[in-house]
Amino acid sequence: MKKFFMSIVAAVILLVSSQNAYAADDFAVEVLNLVNAERARVGVAPLRLADDLQAASAIRAREIVGYFSHTRPDGSDCFTVMRNRGRTCGENIAAGHGSATETVAQWMDSQGHRENILNPAFKELGVGYAYEDYSDYRHYWVQLFRG
Fold it and tell me: From first to last of its 147 residues, what are the pLDDT tens digits of the chain?
């Protein structure tokens, strides 16, 4: 009976983890489309998703659940999560909204975040999303930009 119960628990954990990963991938594409629409409005070339920035953004999204800052929990700069920084890079973080639309609108209403989104020097994007039920904001978002 104990083995059966543990198998059920493991299956539920796997299902929830895979749903969160699926949601994060869907959110990345949705954020990319919203950001590229904003860039198109001002005549800036679209961004493309980069796998390594996706992975780095996922790490940062988990980090900001417990330490909401552009500084990493170990005290290092947020860009140390990126293996290849390129010529220029940027980070946007947000918390609290459960949809990509609301989060991108929040970023666009902030001068510094808006500047990152519309920066023509940036060519690539990574989007991270984390959900933590027992946290202050529940929904955590990260954009990493590279030019």
Answer: 444 333 333 333 333 333 344 456 889 999 999 999 999 999 999 999 999 999 999 999 999 999 999 999 999 999 999 987 778 999 999 999 999 999 999 999 999 999 999 999 999 999 999 999 999 999 999 999 999
Q: Residue 90 is which amino acid?
A: G
Helical segments of 42-99, H only:
51-66
Closest CA to 143 of 133, 129, 130: 129
Q: Is the pTM of this model over 0.85?
A: no
**Under 8 Å CB-to-CB from 138, ≥6 apart: which residues?**
96, 98, 131, 132
**How far, in Å, CA of 130 to CA of 24, rounded?**
7
Please give the radius of gyration of the chain, using alpha carbons only, rounded to the nearest integer.
Answer: 16
